[in-house]
Amino acid sequence: MGVDVKDEDRKAIAANLALVSQQIALLEQQYHRIAGSVRLLAVSKTKPVEALEAAYHVGQRAFGENYVQEAVDKYHALSHLTDIEWHFIGPIQSNKSRLIAQTMAWVHSVDREKIARRLSEQRPDNLPPLNVCIQVNISGEESKAGVSLSELDDMVALVNHLPNIQLRGLMAIPAPQVDHDAQCRVYEPLQQAFIELSKSDRMIDTLSIGMSADLPAAIASGSTMVRVGTAIFGARDYSAKA
Ligand SMILES: *Cc1c(COP(=O)(O)O)cnc(C)c1O
Known about the structure:
The protein has an 8-stranded parallel β-sheet with strand order 7-6-5-4-3-2-1-8. The chain is an alpha/beta fold. It has a single domain (about 5-235), classed as Alanine racemase (TIM Barrel, Alpha-Beta Barrel), CATH 3.20.20.10. It contains 9 helices and 8 strands. α4 (about 95-105) packs across α5. It has helices spanning about 5-30, 50-55, 70-75, 95-105, 115-120, 150-160, 180-200, 215-220, 230-235; strands at about 40-45, 60-65, 85-90, 105-110, 130-135, 165-170, 205-210, 225-230. Pyridoxal-5'-phosphate binds next to β8 and α9.
């Protein structure tokens, strides 16, 4: 934050957003998806609020953040932009769940019972239910976060039973694969689980998969929300964060 965002940076963000949106529209056509069925979540982690404002001013409303304190700081800094939709997509420590419950509209990274319970208990009464996706681990040992597909039914039952969170779908962060076909193969069981889940509940409408590096495979595999950072805001400089 506090980093200088120049006029040329704003223009680059606007141009990148237009390009990514166009790419999504083309991929929808290519993979026989309904036009407009894939939403774009702009992942703005590590980027200054001015970068988010630049995206907002060309129509972007949904923003994804990974780090709790950074997400909350941006939420307050941009509170005048009342129609921003804040999505939390990062790992959740239980002592940070309250801040998330108080500020975010969505959480994509619900990966254990304790977090689901806390988010529901801590959701303020004056806010609508928190929209959540269950994070699924589809890469086995290579990734630690997420429930396995065999644990998914139990997690769905738990989330459905909690009053102040609303299950909207599934999210995954697969390990990097060598090519498009391998990416699709990894997504295949998740897509099947999502189709089954959405048959049972009309509120289930979100399959949160796809990042800058695997948009085609994710859209081919039924993504309804892609989470794109680098292709919109440029590479992240983690050294500047500390
Ligand atoms: C950082 C991040 C993204 C965006 O990744 P890019 O490669 O920059 O598009 C998407 N999802 C999650 C969970 C992330 O942490």
